[in-house]
């Protein structure tokens, strides 16, 4: 079963579970308050599943989902006082930045261990706007592409990867994130999709290319009511 198919079943499964919980509530099988109290736990479990499935390569998106959903769950069951989240929510922004810096440090550490020369990374962030970047390098190692109520585009069609895989952390929250790569690149998608979608829209090659243990590019991250597209 392909990664995209698995992700679609995952998104569909979330909707089915939510629908069943609401049905139990409207038929008085369970109290409505109980449904909303336990609903964030579903997203915590999905975040944990995404971490394990990606072998902890996909870090930023799943950890943010776990942290936010976990905070709401702890509040719902009375372990966090009311008003805690509304007061301390900027800590989620701090956590997001820390995770991005940690991922960047982890990438650079891998590059140093592999003895690669000058590495090239990039950051594209679009918040309530658009951001387009084109990279020309033979030593692309990865980066971050973030769209929040915006559109972010990263063009890698004139780039190459010597130390496989390059890793891109893609985040799409009510936005569109697009990564353009050469058609012959082998791309692996390791994103967590919550009512969003991640797709490789490149046409299938006429002939399969040579197989490698590592792909050219791994795309990790999260799509929440947004889309992450790979194009050529």
Tell me the strand order in the biggest sheet: 1-3-5-9-7
Terminal residue distance:
24 Å
Domain count: the total is 1
String of helices and strands: HHHHHEEEEEEEEEE
- Tell me the β content: 25-35%
Polypeptide structure, described:
The chain has 232 residues and is an alpha/beta fold. The protein has one domain. It is 40% helix and 31% strand. The protein has 5 helices and 10 strands, in the order αααααββββββββββ. It has helices at 3-26, 32-53, 60-76, 84-88, 90-113; strands at residues 120-127, 130-137, 140-148, 151-159, 166-173, 176-180, 187-194, 197-200, 217-224, 227-231. A 5-stranded parallel β-sheet has the order 1-3-5-9-7. Strands 2-4-6-10-8 form a 5-stranded parallel β-sheet. α1 (3-26) runs antiparallel to α2 (32-53), α2 runs antiparallel to α3 and α3 runs antiparallel to α5 (90-113). The radius of gyration is 19 Å and the shape is elongated. The mean pLDDT is 82.
Short synopsis of the structure:
With 232 residues, the chain is an alpha/beta fold.
Give me some keywords for this one.
single chain, 232 residues, alpha/beta, five-stranded parallel beta sheet, 10 strands, 40% helix, elongated
Outline the secondary-structure elements.
Layout: H1 3-26, H2 32-53, H3 60-76, H4 84-88, H5 90-113, E1 120-127, E2 130-137, E3 140-148, E4 151-159, E5 166-173, E6 176-180, E7 187-194, E8 197-200, E9 217-224, E10 227-231
Parallel strand pairs: 1-3, 2-4, 3-5, 4-6, 5-9, 6-10, 7-9, 8-10
């Amino acid at each position: 079963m392909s990664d995209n198919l698995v992700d679609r079943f995952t998104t569909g499964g979330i909707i089915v579970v939510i629908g069943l919980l609401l049905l139990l509530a409207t038929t008085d099988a369970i109290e409505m308050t109980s449904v909303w109290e336990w609903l964030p736990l579903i997203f915590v479990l999905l975040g944990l599943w995404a971490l394990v499935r990606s072998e902890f390569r996909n870090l930023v998106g799943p950890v943010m989902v776990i942290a936010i959903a976990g905070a709401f769950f702890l509040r719902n069951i009375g372990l966090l006082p009311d008003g805690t989240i509304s007061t301390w929510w900027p800590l989620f922004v701090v956590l997001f930045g820390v995770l991005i810096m940690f991922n960047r440090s982890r990438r650079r550490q891998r590059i140093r261990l592999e003895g690669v020369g000058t590495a090239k990374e990039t950051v594209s962030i679009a918040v309530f706007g658009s951001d387009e970047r084109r990279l020309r390098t033979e030593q692309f190692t990865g980066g971050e592409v973030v769209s929040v109520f915006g559109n972010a585009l990263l063009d890698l069609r004139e780039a190459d990867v010597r130390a496989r895989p390059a890793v891109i952390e893609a985040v799409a929250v009510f936005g569109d994130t697009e990564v353009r790569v050469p058609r012959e690149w082998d791309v692996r998608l390791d994103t967590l999709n919550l009512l969003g979608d991640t797709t490789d829209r490149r046409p299938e090659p006429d002939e399969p290319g040579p197989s490698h243990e590592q792909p050219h590019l791994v795309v990790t991250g999260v799509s929440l009511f947004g889309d992450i597209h790979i194009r050529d």
